[in-house]
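Work Package 4 report. The design task specified in the project plan requires that, given a folded chain encoded as structure tokens, an amino acid be chosen for each position. We show below one input record used in the internal validation round.
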């Protein structure tokens, strides 16, 4: 069975330098007539940083130097986002919102008997199927705008306002402005992009303690942890080992065009002979069916560790990049696979017999290079496709970009 390639990066562009000094980003939120819009929410995508415009439409945010996506939203207006770079001084920026006729008018939505099924499919692919995902709930599924194309077997989902997800596993309320979600049922590729904002849920001391422990667990071994450690030059110390997986065409498998042509020819012969067909060595329906089911590629694992000094390049003072051939085979040695993941057919990655059940993920490069930031955020959401453990963990296992695990005592 062809293994699914699943992509699950978020499209926020953000970084922080962890410097002590912070600078003020301030301004006003207005409509196109220049009138102030009190009550507009101003959010920093991927973080727990937000504010609300006052009665005069004024807002202010204290931000450390870095690169942020700012999302502004108010009911009745189209959500607006702007990339802001905070360097060494305060910034002033006014946001102008445009009325959203779609929200303001009464829209009649035709009943879709398949909608509930599509929502379940979206939930599995967006929220996830991990144990943490079982404790997540979409509060307002009615905001999902869903379309399924039978022609190309593709599910697309978007929202024109926040999708609200309550995560009782990690103690977050996630507001997600979903720009686009796509699931291609033919290629089994998942892609989504949008702007998440995290809020802490309230709970008892016992709950807060459990949430803190689960957040540490969710962060460790994640893509955010991996790129953060790569940026700091400490991926090995943090438990990551990087190998190369080399994929080549299977020399024992015929081309798809030849396989399909022979299956079609033999099926026509079989029909013409009323269901009987003469078996010929190398030219039977069974032979070509086996050819079709044979893997299109063969993979060879190079267990020599990739030199991160060669892999990682500095782009500027706040951005680094990676570029590589073949596929990165990333092993996280500080945690083992969850039993609920190991039992999922077709999702786990093959490994050498002498390797314990460490968490293994693959990075397939789609757009070179991959730019990333100190906090573990990445620039282009279409730059990579993940397989393995990282394709299993999705929104239910995500933490804010400004999350930092507590330092371990020596």
């Amino acid at each position: 069975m062809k293994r699914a390639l699943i992509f699950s990066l978020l499209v926020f562009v953000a970084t922080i330098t962890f410097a002590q000094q912070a600078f003020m980003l301030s301004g006003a939120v207005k409509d196109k007539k220049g009138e102030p819009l009190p009550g507009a929410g101003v959010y920093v995508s991927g973080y727990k940083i937000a504010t609300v415009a006052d009665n005069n439409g004024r807002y202010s945010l204290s931000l450390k130097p870095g690169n942020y996506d700012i999302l502004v939203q108010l009911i009745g207006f189209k959500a607006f986002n702007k990339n802001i770079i905070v360097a060494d001084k305060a910034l002033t920026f006014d946001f102008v919102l445009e009325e959203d006729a779609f929200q303001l008018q009464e829209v009649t939505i035709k009943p879709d008997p398949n909608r509930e099924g599509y929502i379940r499919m979206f939930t599995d692919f967006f929220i996830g199927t991990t144990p943490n995902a079982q404790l997540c709930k979409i509060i307002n599924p009615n905001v999902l705008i869903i379309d399924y194309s039978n022609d190309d077997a593709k599910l697309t989902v978007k929202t024109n306002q926040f999708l609200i997800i309550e995560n009782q596993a990690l103690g977050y309320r996630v507001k997600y402005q979903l720009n686009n979600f796509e699931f291609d049922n033919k290629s089994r590729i998942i892609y989504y992009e949008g702007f998440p904002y995290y809020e802490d849920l309230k709970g008892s001391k016992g709950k807060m303690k459990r949430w803190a422990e689960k957040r540490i667990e969710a962060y460790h071994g994640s893509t955010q942890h991996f790129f953060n450690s790569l940026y700091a030059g400490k991926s090995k110390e943090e438990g990551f080992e990087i190998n190369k997986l080399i994929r080549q065409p299977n020399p024992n498998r015929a081309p798809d065009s030849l396989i399909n042509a022979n299956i079609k020819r033999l099926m026509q012969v079989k029909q013409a002979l009323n269901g009987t067909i003469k078996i010929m060595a190398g030219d039977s329906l069974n032979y070509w069916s086996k050819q079709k089911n044979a893997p299109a590629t063969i993979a060879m694992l190079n267990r020599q560790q990739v030199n991160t000094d060669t892999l990682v390049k500095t782009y500027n003072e706040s951005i680094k990049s990676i570029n590589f051939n073949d596929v990165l085979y990333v092993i996280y040695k500080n945690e083992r696979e969850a039993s609920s993941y190991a039992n999922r057919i077709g999702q786990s990655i093959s490994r050498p017999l002498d390797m314990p059940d460490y968490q293994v993920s693959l990075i397939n490069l789609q757009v070179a290079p991959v730019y990333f930031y100190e906090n573990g955020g990445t620039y282009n959401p279409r730059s990579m496709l993940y397989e393995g453990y990282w394709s299993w963990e999705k929104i239910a296992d995500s933490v804010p970009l400004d999350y930092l695990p507590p330092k371990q005592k020596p």
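The radius of gyration is 25 Å. Validation will be extended to a larger panel in the next phase.
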